[in-house]
Amino acid sequence: MDYHWNWAIFGELSPDGVNTYWQMLLSGLGWTLATSLAGWVMALALGALAGIARTLPQRPLRMAAGAYIELFRNVPLLVQMFLWFFVVPELLPRAAGDWLKALPQAPFVTAVICLGFFTSARVAVQVAAGIDALAGGQAQAALALGLTRPQAYRYVLLPLAVRIVLPPLASEFLNIIKNSSVALTIGLVELTASARAIQEFSFQVFEAYAAATVLYVAVNLAVTAGMNVLERRLALPGSLGAR
Amino acid sequence: MASIRLFVLLLLALPGLLHAQQAEPPRNGTLAKIARDGYITLGVREGSVPFSYLDDKGRFIGYSVDLCMKIVDEVKKRLNKPVEVKMTPVSASNRIPLMANGTIDLECGSTTNNAERARQVAFSPTIFVIANRLLTRKTANIRTLADMKGKTLVATAGTTTLKQMTALNRERNLGMRIVVGKDHPESFLMLETNRANAEANDDILLAAQVAGSKQPADYAIGTEALSLEPYAIMLRRGDAPFKEAVDAALRAAFASPDFPRLYAKWFTSPVPPKGINLNVPISPQLQKVLANPTDSSDPAAYR
C-alpha cells in the first residue's frame, strides 16, 4: 500500500469554509438519526395497523392489508426512493407536484416517507406473526370472557404479541438506520453521503469511511442495548417470549 | 453482551492493523513494476464523455485514454520491451484506493488536480482546463450567479463545484438552496424535472449533458466562468522516474503537429456512441497550457 494516512484530516476545515470535516460527519449522523427515527415512528404506526388488519376475521380487511404489505415489500428500496422522489411529483396535478419539489427539505421528507412505508410492511408481517403465534386459544378465551374484539386485542392479544416480536422489531429498527443510507441517492447528505463527500474533497478515503463505520456501529450498539433493556423490563413470566 | 464487547475490541484494533500495513517498504516505482509484470493498468471511467467512457462496442475510449496511450508508448520506449495494456474501470469513489494499492498505475479520467488531492497522489501536466458554469433553462432568464438569489441550485455530491458553490453562496449572501445530486446524470435530472433552477458543473460536462438531452435547444450554459480547474492524469506520489516519463510523453504530445487533430476528434466532431458533437473549441486557457505545460494545482496559474 502506498497510501498517505492522515487521521488529522477530521480537524481540518472542510471546503465550505465553516465546518471541520468532523462537524461534517456529525451533521451527516444527525440527518441519519432524524431520518431513521421519523421513519421508524411512521413504520411502527402503519405497520401495527396493517399487522392487526392481517389477523382480523373480516376477509376484505385481510386482503387489503395483504396487498399493502406485498406492494411495499417486493419493490427494492432503492427503486422506491426513486419513484417517490422523481416519479410521484410528475404524476400529481401540476400545482401539487411543484409544491412537493419546492419543499425546503424535499430529500429528507421523501426519505422519511419512503423508509416509513417500506419498513411498515416488514413490521406488519412481524406483528401479524406475533398475533398468530398466540394461536386461536387466547383470542377465543378473551371473547368467551365477554370482551369485545377490540378489547380482546387491546388487553390480551397485543400486549402478548408485542413481547413475542420485540427481538425481530429490534432488528428492523437497526435495518431502518442502515437503510437510511440509500437516501444519499436522492441528495440527502446523511452519514454515508458525508463520508463520501469527505473522501472526494480530500482523497482520504479510508479515514472517512472508517469514521462513518464506527459511528454506525456505535449507534446500532446503543439501539441493541436499549432494546435489550426494554425486553427485560417487559418480560412476563409464564408467557411466550419471556426469558 | 460479551459478544458486543469482543466486537468493539476488534473495531478498536482495526486502525492499528491498517497502520501495520504501511510498514512495508515502498516499492521501487511504477516503471520497475511494469518491467517486472509486462503490463500496465489504466484506470478508466465508464461515463466521463468525452474524456474516458465506454462505447457501444464495450471498449474504453476518450481524450484522456488516447493521451494515456501516448504515455504507454513512452514507457515502452524507455523499457525497450513490449508492454501489455489492461484497463480497469474506476469510479470517483474508488480511484484513490485502487491507485494506492497498486491496482491501477495511471488514472485516465476527468480528475481535477487540486492542492488537497496533491497530498495524496501526483498529477501529470494539465490536459484540459474547465470552468465552473451554470446551466439553466433559457426560459428562466438566469444570466449570472447573482440572478440565482433565493433560488435552488443543484451540484453533484463530492465535486469541487459543490464545494465552491457552498463558499460563494456564503460570501455573496445569495441565500440559494443548494441540493445535491448523487452523480452528474442525477444532477441534470433535477434541473430537467424543475427541482432546481440551475445546475452548477464543469462546463465540458454541461456541454455533454445538453448535447445528450431530449431537448438541447431548451438549455443555456452561462457565460460567467465561476472558477478555473485543471484536469490531469493521476499517478502515485513520490515516483520521480515514472512522473518524468509521463511528463515527457505529454509534452511531446502537446507539441506535436498531430495534437489539433487529436483534440478535434473528441471535442469538435461527432463522438460515439450517439454521434454527439460537443462543439467545444480549444479555450484560450488550454492554448496557454499546451504552449507551456504545467502540473500546477493552483487555479491562478490558468488565468
From TrEMBL, chain A:
Residues 29-227 form the ABC transmembrane type-1 domain. One of its GO terms (cellular component) is ATP-binding cassette (ABC) transporter complex. The chain crosses the membrane at residues 20-50, 71-88, 108-131, 208-230. Belongs to the binding-protein-dependent transport system permease family. HisMQ subfamily. It is found in: Cell inner membrane; Cell membrane. SUPFAM superfamilies: MetI-like. It holds the Pfam family BPD_transp_1. It is a multi-pass membrane protein. InterPro entries: AA_ABC_transptr_permease_3TM, ArtM/GltK/GlnP/TcyL/YhdX-like, MetI-like, MetI-like_sf. GO terms for molecular function: transmembrane transporter activity. Keywords: Cell membrane, Membrane, Transmembrane, Transmembrane helix, Transport. This is Amino acid ABC transporter permease. PANTHER family: GLUTAMATE_ASPARTATE IMPORT PERMEASE PROTEIN GLTJ, MEMBRANE COMPONENT OF AMINO ACID ABC TRANSPORTER. Its main location: membrane. One of its GO terms (biological process) is amino acid transport.
TrEMBL record, chain B:
GO terms for cellular component: extracellular region; outer membrane-bounded periplasmic space. Residues 1-20 form the signal peptide. Residues 39-270 form the Solute-binding protein family 3/N-terminal domain. It comes from the Bacteria. Keywords: Signal, Transport. GO terms for biological process: amino acid transport. Pfam families: SBP_bac_3 (PF00497). Gene3D superfamilies: Periplasmic binding protein-like II (3.40.190.10). Belongs to the bacterial solute-binding protein 3 family. PANTHER family: AMINO ACID ABC TRANSPORTER PERMEASE, GLUTAMATE_ASPARTATE IMPORT SOLUTE-BINDING PROTEIN. This is Amino acid ABC transporter substrate-binding protein. It comes from Pseudoduganella albidiflava.
